[in-house]
Amino acid sequence: MTSVDIELSKVACPTCDRHSESIVASGYDFEYGTSKHEFKLRLCKTCDLIYLSPRPVLSELSRIYPPEYNPFHFHKIRNPIMRWGRRLVQMRKVTAIRALLPDNATIMDAGCGSGALLTLLQSVAPPGWRIYGNDFNKEALECVRRLGIETIPGRFEEIDLSHRFDMIILN
Q: What is the pLDDT of residues 62-115, one digit of tens each?
């Protein structure tokens, strides 16, 4: 993927709509090279939410997440060393998540891609867990459905969150 200029928009805190923040991290998209811009994570001094601002405007999402975007295709990784390394990293996350949640938890992975993390969650889930995957990529969601995991299609900001979730994962 080649770095491009994308349109960004400075936003207030999505939770409390305030502009009282400090920068807690910043960096470039060195992995996928989707933008030449430095991205900044801000900590809201009012409600403690960490959020991205400035962030890409909605019309740029298809350039940032094109059909060949790797997380949509993790299920196709053939290299056994890469599969093993990715699984190791993801299992550390799964172990931490499992320790935090009760046996009747409801969980959603927002931007779940082809469901790699969801598959691992499913492998350690007690019978009472309800696990959902959310993404806007139709091919990725079809992979998740084939795994037997319920899906919530669409951009996270636009989906109906009538469910109550004990944890929403942004992996």
A: 777 776 666 555 566 677 777 777 778 888 999 999 999 999 999 999 999 888
| Strands, E assignment, the chain | 8-9, 21-27, 39-44, 50-52, 55-56, 106-110, 130-135, 150-153, 167-169
User: What are the backbone angles phi and psi of residue 138, rounded to the nearest 5°?
Assistant: -65, -40
Residue 53 three-state SS: coil
pLDDT of amino acid 69: 65
Token output for 10: 């400075």
Query: How many angstroms separate the CA atoms of 168 and 54, rounded?
Result: 22
What percentage of the chain carries pLDDT values higher than 90?
44
Report yes or no: 144 and 131 within 8 Å, Cβ to Cβ: no
Task: Please name which of 111, 110, 108 lies closest in space to residue 121, comparing C-alpha atoms.
Answer: 108
Cα-flanking dihedrals φ and ψ of residue 68, to 5°?
Answer: -85, 5
